[in-house]
Design goal:
heterotrimer; A mainly alpha (370); B mainly alpha (333); C alpha/beta (512); A: 370 residues; mainly alpha; two-stranded antiparallel ribbon; 2 strands; 73% helix; C: 512 residues; alpha/beta; Rossmann fold; 3 domains; six-stranded mixed beta sheet; globular
């Protein structure tokens, strides 16, 4: 008499789980990383036939093996962390700024322009402050354009900032052809290679130390800014509920623009660090997708600047390590992107098990007993 | 001059074809409320899957069989890109992950897979290493209508493409028809606008989202296949596909989520992409190389302008699908 | 009377959301050919229960029988297959679709997809029941009552024979309500089962054949309407017989505090939502505002709080210290505060506007005070003390002050909000539906707090829905209807009938 098809409770039902303690949540994430590495091991074996343990060891050695490698790794982490910190306040406000790539790039472009055009005009002591101002300003402008439209017309910021990236890339390509050296190479070459004018100084004999110190400074600033400042509080309120923000008299438009300006400014600084502090040249792919990776760094860290130190380190390590094994085992470098992708999928997926509770069907057991 | 204009038009169409595939696929996806920023990765995957299919068939199969030579890369491409879209769907629909982050990770992954296999496929499988050249398959894909040459300018401008070009246009028109004229389209649009409403009306929201995203991904992947097989002629160059995936996403906004407009839109974008080559010929003026890059900027700039204008006009029909970017959980309170 | 044929039987239905028990062990029967009212206060679990029948939620335990067969309703589609149709309080319509497209959404086509033919068929349904509706109009161009009509036509067109309506009259004018009732009666006479969720007693008595009463998620009993009256139903709803007995002190030398003149404002669609409203709120008095929900109460309070742009009018605040008159019109909340106006506002939407759900109690305390001082940094000491004080004084049930407020129950959320708003010693206090969803004890805590504010010389404006409360609590009651004032009465002498009549005086109310 009973319609058994209709009777069965769904096999799996979901419900929200608000209350997972943080330590448990981090265990789930760690588990996801472990699982990801296991899957990656299979991928490595299938694609290359090498022993994955050896490959992982090589990855480790490749990233940390020598002091030079270690510093290179550190500086890479610093840049990625810097960009991640830049996008974080916007994300906390639920403003999906995926235009960091472009904002960094125009910051770098402004830096390079200063280095190229002002090399004779200003002494280095004055040039560097000008470069800082120019890169920050460029980043701010690039970030403010979508912010103004978002605040005034509610223009979709994800799509807008995404498009701004490619405008920036083309802009840089354009300047590369103007500045190219030697002619016909389609590259700018090392800017001021001989005079080193406009290069960020080497301190304590370590090439990238200044970069690292600046980024540590920004990290601390951002942590305090988000957690203890009134601005940071306003960002959280606007992000959580625009209605509440209006209700307590927060000028939402102003907060959106101010926060995006900050976001852009730090991106500009990142551009400065890449151009004047590291590569001393510019090309349209010099940011190398870190503007996008930064989004994942920030999101994986739940927008917490302290945790971002860790997540940016992990993602840099993956990229670096993989490109090292690529050389060691004569593989294609793109394997690092594959492995990064797989690991990201796992971490992204693991959030589900933190936010939701899965209830398996229990009813049929009772039915059997009857 | 006429020849020149038609030549330009032909090139614009060639450049536009991958964008038609990409944007049509992305429109279907976005109509279900999924903002798939993994489309660039998916298009790479579509390309490389086709390459892999062709590589093995040329190696072990009978290359004189035109039908299989085309069908196998075609199916491989569909399967590869649909698989990518499935990963995205599983993460965002079933596991309700953030769509932006998932999409970007997918792009990283897809570009990585493309460049990895593109660069080392032949060395992995006992070849000489180096770049892949699949001339036979490429030529089959490039085969045009036999009477195209005989129809003069019209024939050479509009009929001188491989079959994928016509497929792109057919798919865009079909997608338009399905979205606007059928029950499935109505349901799909409802899912993207308001999944709760669609759910209450008895529509299987999850199924629609999965299907739209996977089919959309498969269509977009064909853009990658067209690029490597027809445009390049069966070779793989790392990052050769460039930013066309993002351009396809831009096109979605430019045509305000209407697939039929993506045909002229893609040709326009394609034209803007290459107009720098033709400007000197049209005007007789030499063009600085720097302004080429500025011309390449144009598609993005016009997209931004369209995005701004539609948001300023606030016309309801021209906005992105209402629930774009949000995951749906029925028991949300 | 014919023997009752059960259409739906619920047995032991329980549903919880986290720690909140929405329904507990509910047994309920809906018969064919009858209209059943599900009566209960706000938050008594009526909607949750019905959502389980319509497939929105799945019960944690219990059984649902339709036509005597045990069924599992896993999705709205399952419900639809069982010919169950629900009209939700928040309409489930796609804004950019036309009425026809919405009505046919999700259906199976037996003869192919043909909008025109469907349109003609829908027209027939409309004519049969006497609905007037433009089927080609887009939903976003429609008024609320038009949208509701679309919802009902949708369910009817789909051939539902079990119809559930969630507070359908809240947004309707009296005439529209009568039209709806006659349709429902017709449907009942065809042998359909109809469930109407409501908390309006007169509707229950007028329309339904049987009443099921829910209280705190439990089914406390069902009665045949003919054998019930308002007081017996109220008794079931609230549990024990309570004459409210809210203490009301005499106003002590009331002075004018807030003078509102000729307020007008339009909503985003350009429809007038408040029209020529003038009144004076006096210090030391509670001014009640009564009206069917959506009569302009929200816009009125938001206009005073600086959240709504006015098209016309004047809001004058008379500063008790300096005696100066300040015009608050079109000032932002911040500007109002900077004028030295201590205006507190407990909005209707507590977690969406008054508080931030994901923030803890301390950070929520800070919402009002964080801007004080010139420091760039937050001062968490004072808000922490305030949070601790509110928790202990108002008996807020929470693990500690660091708990996100979304984890608290409705009553405790409200205590946190009201506690914060009165902590700044306001000179004007506006509260919107402050006891909605609260249990009796919490409600009384709130009434006492308001009375204390009144006694300390605050001008209190109280927007309520329960007429008994308004009459017992307020000194003066202003009645809104369709965005206009339809009466101002003295709380001590007014009768419910008088207010109820004024609430439905104009044929307005066509708005959200």
């Amino acid at each position: 008499m009973k319609n058994s098809k209709n009777l069965s409770e769904p096999l799996i039902r979901l419900s929200k789980n608000d209350a997972m303690p943080p330590w448990k949540a981090w265990c789930v994430r760690a588990g996801a990383v472990v699982a990801a590495f296991i899957v990656c091991a299979f991928i490595i074996v299938i694609l290359t036939g090498y022993n994955p343990i050896e490959v992982y060891v090589a990855m480790f050695k490749g990233s940390f093996g020598t002091s030079g490698k270690f510093w290179f790794m550190l500086q890479k982490t610093a840049i990625l962390l810097c960009i991640s910190l830049a996008v974080t306040p916007a994300f906390k406000m639920r403003f999906w700024n995926i235009g960091a790539e472009g904002q960094v790039l125009v910051g770098g472009l402004a830096t390079a322009a200063c280095m190229i055009y002002l090399d004779d005009a200003l002494p280095t002591v004055l040039l560097i402050p000008v470069m800082i101002a120019a890169s920050v300003l460029a980043g701010i402008i690039w970030a403010l354009i979508p912010a103004v439209f978002k605040a005034t017309f509610n223009t979709n910021e994800t799509l807008f900032t995404l498009m701004m990236n490619y405008v920036a890339i083309q802009l840089v390509s354009c300047f590369v052809t103007i500045w190219e050296k030697p002619k016909g190479s389609n590259t700018v070459g090392i800017i001021n290679a001989m005079s080193e004018i406009g290069w960020l100084p080497t301190i304590f004999g370590k090439k990238y130390l200044l970069n690292v110190i600046i980024v540590i400074g920004i990290t601390i600033f951002m942590y305090i800014y988000l957690k203890y400042s009134k601005h940071g509080y306003e960002i959280s309120v606007v992000g959580e509920s625009e209605n509440t923000a209006k209700y307590i008299g927060i000028n939402v438009k102003k907060v959106i623009m101010r926060t995006m300006a900050l976001s852009g400014a730090i991106c500009g600084v990142a551009g400065l660090l890449i151009i004047a502090g590291t590569n001393h040249t510019i090309s349209s792919n010099i940011v190398g997708g870190q503007g996008f990776t930064a989004i994942m760094v920030s999101w994986l860290a739940k927008f917490n600047p302290a945790v971002m130190v860790l997540t940016s380190f992990i993602l840099t390590f993956l990229g670096r390590g993989a490109s090292e094994i690529a050389t060691t085992f004569r593989l294609n470098e793109s394997i690092s992107e594959i492995l990064t992708g797989v690991i990201l999928f796992f971490i992204i997926g693991s959030e589900f098990f933190i936010n939701y509770k899965i209830n398996f069907r229990t009813k049929h057991i009772e039915e059997d007993k009857k | 001059m006429i020849t020149l204009i038609f030549g330009f038009l032909r090139q614009a169409i060639i450049q536009g074809i991958p964008l038609i595939f990409g944007s049509t696929g992305e429109i279907l996806t976005e109509k279900s409320g999924n903002l798939n920023l993994g489309i660039p990765g998916i298009m790479y995957m579509g390309g490389i899957s086709g390459v892999i299919g062709a590589f093995f068939y040329e190696k072990y199969g009978d290359v004189s069989n035109v039908f299989l030579c085309v069908l196998i890369p075609f199916l491989a491409s569909l399967a590869g890109s649909a698989l990518m879209a499935f990963i995205y769907s599983f993460l965002t629909i079933t596991l309700r992950a953030n769509q932006n982050v998932t999409g970007l990770a997918l792009t990283t992954f897809g570009v990585g897979v493309g460049n990895f296999f593109g660069g080392s496929l032949s060395s992995l499988f006992g070849g000489s290493g180096g770049t892949i050249a699949l001339n036979v398959t490429g030529n089959y894909f490039k085969t045009t209508l036999p009477f195209a040459d005989k129809l003069g300018l019209f024939g050479s401008t509009f009929l001188s493409f491989g079959f994928l070009a016509y497929l792109a246009i057919a798919i865009a028109l079909t997608a338009s028809l399905i979205l606007n004229r059928t029950r499935i389209g109505l349901n799909l649009r409802a899912v993207g606008e308001s999944p709760a409403t669609a759910d209450a009306a008895g529509i299987n929201v999850t199924l629609y989202k999965y299907l739209a995203t996977c089919i959309g991904g498969a269509i977009a992947g064909l853009g990658g296949l067209y690029f490597v097989m027809d445009y390049i002629g069966g070779a793989w160059t790392n990052n050769g596909f460039g930013d066309r995936g993002w351009l396809a996403i831009a096109l979605v906004i430019f045509v305000i989520w209407k697939p039929k407009f993506s045909i002229p839109g893609a040709i326009l974008f394609g034209g803007l992409y290459i107009i720098y080559i033709y400007i000197p010929e049209f005007t007789g003026m030499a063009l600085a190389r720097s302004s080429q890059e500025l011309f390449n900027m144009l598609p993005y700039v016009v997209t931004i302008i369209v995005l701004c204008l539609t948001s300023m006009r606030k016309k309801r029909e021209q906005q992105p699908p209402m629930s774009l970017g949000l995951s749906y959980f029925r028991e949300e309170r | 009377m014919k023997p009752a044929v059960p259409a739906i039987e619920l047995r032991g239905i329980t549903k919880t959301f986290g720690k909140v028990v929405a329904n507990k062990n509910v047994d309920l029967t809906v018969n064919r050919g009858e209209i059943l009212s599900v009566l209960g206060e706000n938050g008594s679990g009526k909607t949750t229960l019905m959502n389980m029948i319509s497939g929105i939620y799945y019960p944690d335990s219990g059984e649902i029988l339709v036509d005597g067969k045990e069924v599992s309703i896993r999705s709205p589609k399952d419900a639809f297959d069982l010919k169950i149709g629900m009209i939700h309080q928040h309409f489930k319509l796609v804004d950019i679709f036309t009425a026809t497209e919405n009505i046919i959404l999700g259906l199976k086509d037996e003869k192919g997809f043909d909008v025109k033919r469907a349109s003609a068929e829908i027209k027939e349904t409309c004519e049969k029941y006497g609905f007037e509706i433009d089927l080609n109009k887009k939903i976003y161009e429609m008024s609320v009552s038009e949208k509701q009509t679309v919802e009902i036509v949708k369910v009817l067109y789909r051939g539902a024979d079990i119809l559930i309506l969630d507070e359908p009259t809240a947004v309707l004018t009296p005439q529209e309500t009568q039209t709806l009732f006659s349709v429902l009666r017709t449907m009942r006479d065809y042998g359909n089962a109809i469930v109407i969720i409501t908390h309006k007693l007169h509707e229950v008595l007028e329309l339904s054949d049987r009443v099921a009463v829910l209280r705190k998620g439990e089914h406390v009993g069902s009665v045949v309407t003919a054998q019930a009256d308002e007081s017996s139903l109220t008794q079931m709803m609230v549990g024990k017989k309570i004459s409210l007995d809210i203490e009301r002190s005499e106003p002590k030398n009331p002075t004018d505090r807030l003078v509102v003149e000729n307020l007008n404002c339009v909503n985003r669609e350009g429809v007038k939502v408040i029209e020529d409203i003038s009144f004076t709120a006096r210090a030391g008095e509670i001014l009640g505002i009564a009206g069917v929900s959506g009569s302009g109460q929200r816009e009125l309070l938001e206009a005073i709080a600086g959240l709504q742009k006015l098209t016309d009018g004047k809001i004058t605040y008379i500063n008790p210290k300096t005696g100066t008159h300040d015009n608050l019109r079109n000032k932002t909340p911040l500007q109002i505060r900077n004028l030295g106006v201590r205006l507190s506002f407990v909005p209707e939407d507590r977690l969406g506007m008054g508080l931030v759900g994901n923030m803890d109690i301390i950070d929520n305390m800070m919402l009002r005070s964080y801007q004080k001082g010139h420091s760039l940094f937050l001062q968490r000491k004072a808000p922490r003390d305030l949070a601790e004080r509110i928790i202990s004084e108002l008996d807020v049930v929470t693990p500690d002050a660091n708990t996100p407020v979304r984890r608290l129950s409705g009553g405790n959320v409200q205590k946190v909000l009201v506690g914060r708003e009165i902590s700044s010693a306001p000179t004007v206090l506006m509260v919107a539906y402050p006891v909605r969803g609260l249990d009796i004890n919490s409600s009384y805590t709130i009434y006492n707090l308001l009375n204390r504010q009144k006694d300390s010389g605050t001008a209190v404006i109280f927007v309520g829905e329960d007429l008994d409360v308004l009459i017992e609590l307020c000194d003066k009651i202003l009645i809104l209807c369709g965005g206009k004032i339809s009466g101002i009465v003295d709380g001590r002498t007014a009768t419910k009938e008088e207010i109820g009549l004024a609430m439905t005086k104009y044929s307005g109310g066509e708005r959200e």
